[in-house]
């Protein structure tokens, strides 16, 4: 009888743990439009230790699809990004420290050219990925009236850039980056944010973008 009780209790504990784990994951969709045109649609699932996104970019030749999985450190910075992208863009594993490099090489082989080391201290971005922009905001999260600057790398094309996050009020930030999308294409992103730093919505006046979250 006691064994049956313990077994039942174990099932209950595992069930509760599974539900708790599922509750920690949040899924949302970012939609970027310019007038009547859709610029990007991004579905993202976040946990405390990961960020997994599917970014779809309509083009005249069809829809480009990028899938990324970011392994996050406790401070919100990236340890590793695994990316599957369209032809002519990077597909592979981008690592941000020697430990992540060693682990990735052990996983896929030491001579595999799919593993690339990112510049030290950089954060991953894609100019049209609002989820990765949100992670930059959450990681830097400056006090009201101040600006934080960080180095970033575009995980699709390898461009390096400097990004600034200015907290203009308790519920809004302005993000400036030249190179987050491509070289010579500066972005000015105005975001409404929650208390935790999550993007509620935003605009890009340079490209006439409207950014919504669903």
Q: What attributes characterize this protein structure?
A:
14-stranded mixed sheet; alpha+beta; 214 residues; 14 strands
Identify low-pLDDT runs: 5-22
Determine the structural class based on helices, strands and strand pairing: alpha+beta
Q: Which word captures the global form?
A: globular
Question: What is the count of DSSP helices, taking H or I runs of 4+ residues?
Answer: 3
Number of strands: 14
From the alpha carbons, calculate the radius of gyration and give it in angstroms.
Answer: 19 Å
- The topology string of helices and strands comes to HEEEEEEHEEHEEEEEE
Helix content: 10-25%
Which strand-content bin applies to the residues?
over 45%
Total number of distinct structural domains: 1
Q: How many strands, what sense, and barrel or not for the largest sheet?
A: 14 strands, mixed
- Give the strand order, joined by hyphens, for the main sheet: 7-6-5-4-3-2-1-14-13-12-11-10-9-8
Integer average pLDDT: 89
Distance between the termini: 50 Å
What does this structure look like?
The protein is an alpha+beta fold and 214 residues long. It has one domain (25-213). The protein contains three helices and 14 strands. It has a 14-stranded mixed β-sheet with strand order 7-6-5-4-3-2-1-14-13-12-11-10-9-8, sandwiched between helices. The longest helix has 23 residues, at 2-24.
Question: Brief overview, please?
Answer:
By secondary structure, this protein is of the alpha+beta class. 21% of the residues lie in helices and 47% in strands. It has a 14-stranded mixed β-sheet with strand order 7-6-5-4-3-2-1-14-13-12-11-10-9-8, sandwiched between helices.
């Amino acid at each position: 009888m006691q064994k049956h009780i313990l077994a039942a209790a174990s099932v209950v504990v595992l069930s509760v743990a599974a539900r708790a784990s599922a509750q920690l994951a949040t899924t949302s969709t970012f939609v970027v439009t310019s007038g009547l045109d859709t610029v990007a649609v991004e579905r993202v699932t976040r946990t405390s230790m990961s960020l997994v996104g599917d970014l779809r970019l309509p083009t005249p030749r069809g829809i480009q699809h990028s899938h990324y999985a970011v392994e996050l450190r406790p401070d919100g910075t990236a340890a590793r990004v695994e990316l599957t992208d369209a032809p002519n863009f990077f597909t592979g594993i981008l690592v941000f420290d020697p430990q992540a490099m060693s682990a990735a090489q052990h996983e896929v082989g030491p001579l595999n050219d799919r593993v690339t080391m990112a510049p030290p201290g950089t954060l991953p971005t894609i100019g049209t990925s609002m989820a990765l922009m949100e992670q930059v905001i959450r990681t830097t999260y400056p006090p009201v009236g101040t600006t934080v600057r960080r180095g970033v790398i575009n995980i699709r094309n390898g461009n390096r850039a400097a990004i600034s996050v200015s907290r203009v009020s308790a519920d809004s930030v302005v993000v400036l980056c030249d190179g987050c999308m491509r070289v010579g294409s500066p972005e000015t992103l105005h975001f409404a944010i929650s208390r935790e730093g999550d993007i509620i919505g935003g605009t890009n006046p340079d490209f006439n973008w409207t950014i919504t979250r669903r």
